Amino acid sequence: MANRHRGEISAELDGRPRTLVLTLGALAELEDAFGAEDLVALAERFGRGRLSARDAVRVVGAGLRGAGAEVSDAEVARMTTPGGAAGFARIVGDLIAATFGAGEGAAPGPLPPAPPAPPAG
Q1: Under 8 Å CB-to-CB from 96, ≥6 apart: which residues?
Q2: String of DSSP letters for the chain
Q3: Considering only Cβ atoms within 10 Å of each terminal Cβ, which end of the chain, N or C, has fewer?
Q4: pTM (global) more than 0.85
Q5: Angle of helix 24-34 relative to helix 39-47, nearest 10 degrees?
């Protein structure tokens, strides 16, 4: 069972329940895939709300691998889920929301700004 406090979600893929989580390694994989310089840039990219099918494959694949599955993006591209493309978009949205701390099903937004540095002295 997925532990949302650890950023895990559950999703049905190819007719069976799967756990997905964007671990630090999975996030690094996505930074590389999307050419993002850091986590803030990655969160901003996701926060724009535009998602290609290729993006969904990469995010779902990274989430499955983060949870320990040995699956390639090519295998993910052949998977099915209830709701078709909309179902995949929902999985991606839930996974990103769980990772970046938004409420369940909420659209991800950019990460909040870092707190100001304490005054030198």
Answers
A1: 22, 46, 59, 102, 108
A2: ---GGGTEEEEEETTEEEEEE--HHHHHHHHHHHT-SSHHHHHHHHHT----HHHHHHHHHHHHHHTT----HHHHHT---TTHHHHHHHHHHHHHHHHHTPPTTPPP-PPPPPPPPPPP-
A3: C
A4: no
A5: 70
CA torsion, ordered 46, 47, 52, 56, to nearest 10 deg: 40
Over residues 48-105, the pLDDT tens digits come to 878 899 999 999 999 999 999 999 999 999 999 999 999 999 999 999 999 987 644 4
Nearest residue to 8 (alpha-carbon basis) of 73, 111, 96, 116:
96
Rounded distance between C-alpha atoms, residue 30 and residue 7, angstroms: 16
Q: In degrees rounded to 5, what are phi and psi of residue 42? A: -65, -45
